[in-house]
């Protein structure tokens, strides 16, 4: 008997293997003015005003890393991509080295993410606040998109140890993360993205949802990744953006939790 072509295209792995867990990709449209307020001078909002939330379980340091990535569409020097506002993960060992090397906005968060049959459930908790949640059902296989390049923008900087306003030991620079992806398998989901108010991850207030765009389970093929130090941003213009919440790029003392 001939196998169904859909079954042949599904990722194959050993029982219990975590390497091929699909990523949960949630996309919605936000308010363009709100998005622009979060972007430092030199990083520009794009007209689509999209937010992409990626919830995942992927092996890092040879063990599972549960995490969430919050990206907002933005461009730097006319190169389109995503500005990364936060990467909440459950592995403390990967946080501080990532900050030092690349300015990667990682912080500790607790992610619950599972699939049971065709049901998919996920939520992310930080400092006791659940700030994003999804519950939905798989409704069918989606066509694989062609291979593509994706750019992410991170910021690497160090404020001065003498605490002088506007002074840096390492001024703000843009870090470009250029990745190339293929797709092994995609499934479309029907369900609601829920954003909840949180002083630690203020996505519901800073990037409110105007329209839900899509929800997918995506099994990527990693084809390449380059991390490079790009241009320096205006230090004076960046200063209000240098104070952030717990390693993320969410606004700090002026818009977030007080110490």
Structure description:
With 259 residues, this protein is mainly β. The protein has a single domain (16-241), classed as Beta Barrel (Acetoacetate decarboxylase-like), CATH 2.40.400. 11% of the residues lie in helices and 55% in strands. A seven-stranded mixed beta barrel has the order 1-3-4-5-10-11-12. β4 (63-76) and β5 (79-89) form a beta hairpin. The N and C termini lie far apart (65 Å). Mean pLDDT is 91; it is low at 1-5 and 255-259.
Observed structural traits:
259 residues; mainly beta; Acetoacetate decarboxylase-like; 7-stranded mixed barrel; disordered N terminus
Strand-helix topology:
Elements: H1 5-9, E1 23-30, H2 32-38, E2 43-45, E3 50-60, E4 63-76, E5 79-89, H3 95-102, E6 106-108, E7 110-116, E8 119-126, E9 129-142, E10 148-159, E11 168-195, H4 203-206, E12 209-232, H5 235-238
Parallel strand pairs: 5-6, 5-10
Antiparallel strand pairs: 1-3, 1-12, 2-4, 3-4, 4-5, 7-8, 8-9, 9-11, 10-11, 11-12
In one word, what is the shape?
globular
Terminal residue distance: 65 Å
Q: How many alpha or pi helices?
A: 5
* Strand tally: 12
Estimated share of beta-strand residues: over 45%
- Ranges where pLDDT stays below 50 over 5 or more residues in a row are 1-5, 255-259
Query: Structural class of the secondary elements?
Result: mainly beta
Major pleated sheet: 7 strands, mixed, barrel
Secondary structure: helix percent: 10-25%
The sequence of SSEs as H and E is HEHEEEEHEEEEEEHEH
What CATH first level would be assigned? Answer: Mainly Beta
The CATH superfamily is identified as: Acetoacetate decarboxylase-like
Mean pLDDT: 91
Task: Indicate the CATH topology.
Answer: Acetoacetate decarboxylase-like
- Kindly report the spatial arrangement of strands forming the biggest sheet: 1-3-4-5-10-11-12
CATH architecture descriptor name? Beta Barrel
Backbone CA Rg: 19 Å
Count of distinct structural domains: 1
């Amino acid at each position: 008997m001939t196998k169904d072509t859909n079954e042949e295209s599904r990722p194959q792995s050993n029982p219990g293997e975590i390497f091929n867990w699909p990523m949960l990709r949630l996309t919605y449209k936000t308010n363009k003015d709100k998005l622009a307020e979060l972007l430092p001078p030199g990083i520009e909002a794009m007209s689509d005003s999209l937010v992409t939330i990626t919830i995942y379980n992927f092996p890092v340091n040879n063990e599972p890393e549960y995490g969430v990535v919050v990206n907002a569409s933005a461009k730097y020097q006319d190169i389109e991509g995503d500005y990364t506002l936060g990467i909440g993960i459950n592995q403390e060992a990967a946080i501080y080295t990532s900050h030092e090397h690349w300015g990667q906005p990682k912080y500790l968060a607790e992610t619950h993410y599972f699939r049971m049959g065709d049901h998919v459930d996920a939520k992310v908790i930080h400092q006791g606040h659940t700030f994003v949640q999804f519950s939905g059902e798989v409704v069918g296989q989606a066509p694989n998109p062609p291979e593509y390049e994706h750019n992410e923008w991170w910021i690497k900087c160090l404020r001065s140890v003498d605490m002088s306003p506007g002074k840096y030991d390492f001024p703000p620079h843009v870090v470009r993360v250029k990745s190339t992806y293929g797709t092994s398998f995609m499934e479309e989901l029907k369900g609601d993205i829920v954003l909840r108010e949180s002083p630690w991850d203020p996505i519901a207030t800073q990037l409110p949802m105007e329209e839900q765009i899509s929800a997918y389970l995506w099994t990527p093929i990693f084809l390449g990744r380059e991390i490079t130090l790009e241009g320096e941003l205006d230090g004076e213009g960046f200063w209000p953006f240098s104070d952030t919440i717990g390693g993320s790029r969410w606004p700090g003392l002026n818009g977030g939790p007080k110490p």
